[in-house]
Amino acid sequence: MNIENLLRETLSDMADEERPPAPDRFLQLHERRPRRRGLALAAATAVAGMVVGSTLVVQQMSAPAPGAAGLRPALSPQAMATVNVAAGMRLSQLFKQLSQLTGRPVAEFERAAKDGTALGLPPYAGRTLEGLAFPGTYEFSPAASPAELLRPMVARFKAAAEDADLVDGARRTGRTPLEIMTIASIVQAEAGTEEDMTRIARVIYNRLNRKMHLQIDSTVLYGLNKYGAEASLKDVRSRSPYNTYRHLGLPPGPIGSPGADAIRAALHPARGSWLFFVEVDPKERIMKFATSESEYVALLDERQKNLKGR
Question: Has residue 301 got a pLDDT over 60?
């Protein structure tokens, strides 16, 4: 059987299969010339690459991002790889995982992230991919280019943004869409439950409206490329633009990839006059809120008692 007949027969079989999902569920790969290992085998490999290598699987993720990705060897171009974009994951973590899976340098993914046009980033994002690589599980061919790997994450974000009515919702709050995503990323980093998300978002808005420093540790740690639950005294003295103890207003951009719940919370915060929040029981992820400094101090004392009791 020659190459043309083999391709025709394979594509004919594909035509009888179930109709594929919407276009944004697929990872499109550039055509690559197969190595000459016999014409029939080469043609079959090319067809398999078009079918299997283009599949993209997306599932909603809600687990917090780990502090660092585990070491994994790069896969061969013929193998399929899976990367998990956890809610709250930073681009630096994602690029490290993709580098380990594909064998490509992290710098290649960093360069690809700066080409907003190639990735399909919305105009309000500028050249900012941070926060817009939507959480999910993505299956891909390691032979794909960095832009091809990142583009479906952006497509999934745009679908989620449309579902949340991000652009119009941001306008109603008096904020830009990117500012909403920045708030959502902070909410994602700080919250333990979905209920906490809407209240943390309210605290952020209340402090912004009162021209108060946000004083949020997760933004400080992001600016210093650190991980953890609390910033140190040295950290909060840093001159990083993400140091919300030093600088008024929101940080320059998102500090991770928020999920759909965090985006909704940023657009629709709970009603309340809270100005502080404290995770009084870190083990149980119990968050409490305060409207005054005296209440805030009491919550700090409660936290210390819980920590000492364990």
Answer: yes
Domain boundaries, the chain: 3-163, 165-274
Residue pair 257/134 in contact (Cβ under 8 Å)? The answer is yes
pLDDT of residue 142: 82
* Cβ atoms of residues 199 and 146 within 8 Å: no
Name beta bridge partners: 137.
84
Chain-centre distance for alpha carbon 255: 9
Residue 288: beta bridge partners?
Answer: 278
Exposed e or buried b per residue across 257-294, where buried means at least 16 C-beta atoms within 10 angstroms of its C-beta: bbbbbbbbbbbebbeeebbbbbbbbeeeebbbbbeeee
Return the CA Rg of the chain.
Answer: 23
Q: Residue 120 CB: number of other CB atoms within 10 A?
A: 17
> 3-state SS of the chain: helix, strand, coil percent to 5?
50, 10, 45
Portion of the chain with pLDDT greater than 70, in percent: 75
| Ranges of H-type helices in the chain | 3-15, 39-52, 91-102, 106-113, 116-119, 146-164, 166-173, 177-190, 194-209, 217-223, 260-267, 293-308
Q: Report residue 293 CA to chain centroid gap.
A: 33
Angstrom distance (rounded) from CA 149 to CA 75:
15
Tell me the C-alpha distance between 57 and 25, whole Å.
7
Amino acid occupying residue 140: F
Question: Packing angle between helix 166-173 and helix 260-267, nearest 10 degrees?
Answer: 30
pTM over 0.85: no
Per-residue model confidence as pLDDT tens digits over 101-125: 999 999 999 999 999 999 999 999 9
Q: Measured between alpha carbons, how far is residue 199 from residues 150, 186, 235, 258, 265 in Å?
A: 32, 12, 26, 16, 8
